[in-house]
Amino acid sequence: MVWLVLGLVLFLGVHSVRIFAEGWRSAMVARLGAGGWKGVYSLASLAGLALIVVGFGVARAQPVLLWVPPVWMRHVAALLNLVALVLLVAAYVPNNLVKAKLRHPMVLGVKVWALAHLASNQMLAEMVLFGAFLAWAVLDFRAARARDRAAGAPAPGGAAGPTAVVLVVGVAAWALIAFWAHGALFGVKPFGG
């Protein structure tokens, strides 16, 4: 569990700089340049992600059961993950209505993804992993919205065509993950089998 926690602290810590240390971040970007900052940020993120993967694997090998969710919770989690993937895709498709309305769909997608996994899992390592991501996403969304208000940034526009792309790609990605990739990569099939 130590490696998992260290990985979460490093990965989410790097991703929390804008939440807690915007001034320091700006100073580092000025000092290192945009490319240098992105390099350091990326290396620290990758190191944190590697620790999370290793730590989660080790923690799963020594499971600590906390509770047993009802079977129907898997279906609720699958539906929530469909929403999360549509939100994730919306972050990358320009000029879509989802991003225009929500402004930060990726962070909201992380919130929904983490909540879905918290509701449908029962082991301590899973609660630590998904709970940490949920807490980070709540704080990050709040900070991003505060930055938007402070900047007085107008809401971006959106159109139906890009929004349709978001929905089609999001649903397709969800189907690929739910019916194949999740089982192949993590050994857990959301719909049993």
Q: Helical segment tally?
A: 8
Task: State the oligomer.
Answer: single chain
What does the average pLDDT come to?
A: 94
- Helix and strand pattern: HHHHHHHH
Strand percent estimate:
under 5%
Radius of gyration: 18 Å
Structural class: mainly alpha
Poorly predicted regions are none
What is the number of E strands?
A: 0
Which percent bin holds the helix content?
over 70%
Distance between the termini: 29 Å
Description of the structure:
With 193 residues, the chain is mostly helical. The protein has two domains: 62 residues; 130 residues, no CATH class. It is globular and about 45 Å long.
Question: Which features characterize this protein?
Answer:
globular, 2 domains, 8 helices, 193 residues, mainly alpha
Quick structural overview:
With 193 residues, the chain is mainly α.
Which helices and strands appear, and what pairs or packs with what?
Elements: H1 2-14, H2 17-20, H3 22-61, H4 72-90, H5 97-102, H6 105-120, H7 124-151, H8 160-186
Helix pairs in contact: 1-3, 1-7, 3-7, 4-6, 4-8, 6-7
